[in-house]
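User: Hi! Is it possible to get a structure for several chains at once, not just one? Here's what I have:
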Amino acid sequence: MLRRQFLSLAVSTSLLLAGVAGSASAQMAEAITEPVTISFYNYNLASAGIGREATLELIAKFEEANPNVKVEPIGAPSNEVLSRVQADMVAGLDVDVAQLVFRDLIYAAEELGAQPLEDVAGDELAKHALGFVPAGLALGEVDGKTYGLAYVFSTPVMFINRDLFKQAGLDPDQPPRTWEEVKTAGKAIAEKTGKHGFFPGAYGPTDGTFVYQSIVMSNGGGKVRDGNTLTFADKDQADAVAMLRDLMDSGAHARIDVGAHMDTFQSGNLGMFLYTSAILNRMESAAQGNFELGLAPMPSFGEKPTAPTNSGSAVFMFSQDPVKQRAAWELMKFLTSDEAYTIITSKIGYLPLRPGIVNDERYLKGWLEQNPKYRANLEQLDRLTPNVAFGGPNYRQVENMMKDAMTEAVFGSGDPRQVLKAAQEQAQPLMPAN
Amino acid sequence: MTTSPNTRRFAAHLVMIGLSALAIFPVYWMVQTSFRPESEVFSTALWPATPTLENYRRVIEVMPIFGILWNTVLMAAATTAAQVVTGLLAAWALVRWRFPGGRLAHSLIALSWLVPFQVVMIPNYVLATRLGLLDTIAGLVVPNAAAAFAVLVLYNAMRGFPREVVEAARMDGAGSLRTLIEVVIPNLRAPIASVSILCFISAWNEYFWPLLLIRKIENSVVQIGLQFFMSQEGNDWGLLMAAATLASLPILLIYLVLQRQVVESFMKSGIR
Amino acid sequence: MSHTAIATSMPIATPRLPRITLRAFEPWLYLAPALAVLIVWTYVPLLEAFELSFYQWNMLPRSQPRYVGFDNYLNLLNLPDMQQAVINTVLYTVGLLPLSVGVPLVVALLTAQLTGPARNLYRGLIFVPMIVAPIVAAIVWRWLLNEDHGLANQWLRSFGFDTIGFLRDPDVALWTLVWITGWKLIGFSTLLFAAADSAINPSYIEAARMDGATSWQIVRDIRVPLLSPTILLLSLMTVLFGAQWSFVYINALTGGGPLRSTTNVYYLMWEYGFKTMSAGWSTAAGMLVFLVFGLVALVCLALMKKLAVYDD
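Assistant: Yes, the chains can be modeled jointly so their relative placement is included. Here is the combined structure:
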């Protein structure tokens, strides 16, 4: 009795607050004729620096071009933004557009009620997507429909400490292209300089799994799950992790505090650092006066093509109201336009979703000529491989278990393949059944 | 008893110097790092080779740090005041009377200390939003207007208050509120001071609730302000340490000025 | 006067008065503000949480709660890391006790013989960590303890020792977090002990001295027993809140790693309960934490009543 009352209290209050949550998504309005305000949840706004400045600039430009739309920006750190969006939905506040990381893609689509853009925007989506990289729309796709429009994202690149390369007798202009070469170079750096050879940003508490997924999918294309069946312990996938373990055993892979890898690289104690290109700006200013920074594409397994996987985020539409949907769509279109990517790429350092602009005088051509280092990052764009998100209510646990197992396989003493297999069996029941 | 008092005193000094150094060294490190240019951030030299105020300049430039500090002072002061007042009143009720339900009330207050804040966070967020407290300093204060800790400590302090004095006040015809204000509180300055200090520090260091509730940087408090210099795209250590130094400065200054009183109030408060 | 009077005090409960109706109401007036805040902001949500812990629901209006009985609880208790987390929680508590109780007790007794500005200076300095923002404390310690660019390891090296992977080595990381947590507490506990110590009636010590007791005997037989309420209080707080105190540092520094070596019950609940978007998991986690630590509190309080020596 009592129980039911409490629950109905909880349910009814949130229902009341949210208004009637209609799931029927009518076609959005044709145009905006009256002033309208939409909320924009964004994590670049939650930290000081270029990301925030560029985002504010984008919003200002958008408002200028769309005088009837006012954007209310709400900043939250990237690991908190999903909780914030959800809390606000529970509290009955209007969430219109949100920038969410790719790991939450399926959750956003299935549970939070992100709008499928094909249904809302119809042909406009396909028209807008012309000029995207080939995998462009696929980055935000769930079951054949686009829920997230890829926004600020990057891929793993290899940061090189050129000074350490020279000290180890290696040629910094010929950085390792394959994992075999990483092993050789890493060992040389560790032995000759006493510093660390190689480290991927794949194990730390805030690292996510995109570096790990990139490495795995570069070994023949196998993913960490196939539908709702976990496959991260399958042969190719496990071999990739075993390769890292082999690097570790050989001394080429650093054994450091996994939460402080950026510090280790910035302080000049690490030769090769595989991590998101989004930190390029930070690494450059840290290296200034300390060591010479180099950049290389991510290493490959022999002749197999690499599968650079996107870190970063997509923008999602949650508006219910047709007019707000139109305003939200206009904002999303603007954020992924040629003009916006010129700002995003040149100022923040993310990849352009529209590669055409790098050779266009009006946009990035001039900038790229001044920043040739960035080419290593651009080269990977045409092989961009979507990050695999997990579905179901336990998706975060599953992802954590996979990451923990991978870390243990590399850092621990057990057989890496066995460790992965055990974790896969343990995590499978947490996946959705169908 | 083989050691002389002098030797023992010397040993005591030695131990204390060691412990004091351990206590303040990290604080020193924070401050000196805030004066380092970016290229020196990871140097292990004890003092920056080329000290600079650049980090401070940039903190002030990118963030309304003084407004944020002011918000934090307001928030912490209001929270402290509320917790002390509600604490004094509740403690007085529990000490002054023995009444049906008193034990239950006492246990309810004590048990609330054990409720993990994450459990009540979302319901509180919903409620705060309905009350229009979203993105306001009041929203940071109201849910924390009473603290089990304050009630319990003040309860213990009041229990130690001599009964005869209270009785005498009652004989003089003083009501319970007058007795509390005119007799009990003036004699509880030390415990009230210690409780206030601890409440202030804990309010100052509050993190998760403001993170959820505050939306605009102008309405923010320092703990969230610090977060502003950390992101997945790399942390700006020099700026962070400058901001952290600025954030600790007010509380450190208050502490330095009041140091003797703080220590003494703890000595006298008999929190135990 | 009140401070030394603790010894002779007693509850000031007065006998019930004739005007019972009005009187019976009076204490509740005083309790009302505190109780109102706690009921509205803690207990109502707690009851809702209790209810929700039997459902699977993400709290969103667009989805329906589904009754799952005790499933949420069973899932949590069966987490593969739970056993490790329970062991670690005990380790954290045991490791914190020397820092939150042992060292401060010794320091308080030692400084009691010091006089003048030196004593105040020491007591002032060791209080400083208490006012450092936890996130900053975490970052600075991570820095100082880093194997490559940290000062601590540089000193170890220059003295010819091997470096220590304070946050890297699974055998060491937990103790590093214990140290950082304890570092913030030493000063606070010391002040409490010093306060309690200065409240000891000097005539006891004088009398013992007259009887020819050594200062060690005085410490052992008089001062420590008389400090036992403070010892027990701080031990109780360490047991009840140690896991929560260390949580901040686990969250900021290790995320439970390396190789799950620093996770504890509270962090596990956070990671699998509160951080997941499921209201069922998180409320079940919260109820478990509340229940377990509530029980521990009751046991400890009962023990305290038995063990404490009061000066009366």
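Chain A touches chain C through 50 residues (CB under 8 Å). The CA atoms of residues 346 and 367 of chain A lie 7 Å apart.

User: Great, thank you!
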